Amino acid sequence: MDHNHPTTPDTFAQEYQVKRLAETERKHLEDIVKLDPPNEGLMHLVNSEFNKAYTLTEIRRLKHQLKSGRARGDVDD
Fold this sequence. Notes:
This protein is mainly α. The protein is elongated. The mean pLDDT is 80. It has helices at 9-13, 16-19, 23-33, 39-49, 56-68. The chain has one domain (9-68). It contains 5 helices and no strands.
């Protein structure tokens, strides 16, 4: 398939569907966020443990969503 943009594993990792957290992943993070970890540490945890490619900005947004108890806390909600 031809694309009009570069397609590499890194660019694919930035796609929304790849970043979406499963319900079990969200539940796990809700407990961690209650401890108010530093954003960079949380980013490294999410990226390594869940094999995601979240940016620091997305982690801040996710952390806020989890703290506020939103029903869904996907990156682009």
